[in-house]
Amino acid sequence: MLSGMLLIFAALIVGYLIPISKKSTLDLIIKSTSRLVYVILALMGLSLSAVDNLSENLQLISKYTAVFFLVIGACNLICLPLVDRFYGIQADSKQSKLPLLSMAIESAKLVLVIAAGLVVGLFFPVNVHIVETTSQWILLLLLLLIGIQLRNSGLTLRQIILNKHGMLIAAVIVASSLIGGVIAAKILGISVIKGLAMSSGFGWYSLSGILIGGAYGPIWGGASFLIELLRELLSLILIPLIIGTRPLTAIGYAGATALDFTLPVIQTTGGVRCVPIAIVSGFILTLLNPVLMLFFISLAS
């Protein structure tokens, strides 16, 4: 397993070393990444259909999801308000109508893709070995493309270092999430290392579900996916409600999605001042997600 994890991490690094200047090429990479995510999530559904005692294991997925989501979320929301209290900023709160329903539907589509793969696997014979091998190769390509996007995101190291609020938010999210992972592991009676790996998603549901599923199997992969998806969906509700009084808490809870999916909500409800903070915190958490997750997975191998 360790060699596989190193190969996965190497794909991300190689991608990060590739500079792309042509906008049309970057756009094509972004579209390709989105399509690959749908493909690999469908394959995850196929793998899940091959699990023995499926109905019982679906209950396990729900149990793991609920415990990790509630405990990690509680730890995040206990710690983040302290950042607002001691290092707070003033948001330009606005009351704008946002297409929150349509954004939630976009997230829900990913769940439907897994469900579709599950249904297909239940009605047609599935060669698990072929599915897993295909998933591994697509994952390598996906991480290569993600690395390219991170390299060409427009953020320099100087910009990241100089934005203390973004760095502070990211540090608090990482620390409080890992603490939550340890507590959840104790509650569920699983290894602390697995709990730390499960808590390193930071809102990036697609990659988290894929990496955890590849390491621990489709049950844990499905739980990891749902944990981070629920974070994103709750962020869509939470950000407009609290960004006026606790902007850093709102940005922080969005996790890695503050870099992309929830950024329009942050900008519209919190004002332009919140945007650099959201981009930097989201960028750092996006970068740390595969690094920390692969690190903890390698410790258990």
Automatic annotation (TrEMBL):
Top-rank lineage group of the source organism: Bacteria
Indicate the segments annotated as coiled coil, or none if absent: none
Q: Which InterPro entries match?
A: LysO (IPR005642)
User: Which one Pfam family would you cite for this protein?
Assistant: Lys_export
Provide the alphabetized UniProt keywords. Membrane, Transmembrane, Transmembrane helix
Protein known as: Lysine exporter LysO
Q: Is Transmembrane helix among the key words of this record?
A: yes
Q: Which residues cross the membrane?
A: 6-24, 36-54, 66-87, 108-131, 137-155, 167-190, 202-221, 233-255, 275-297
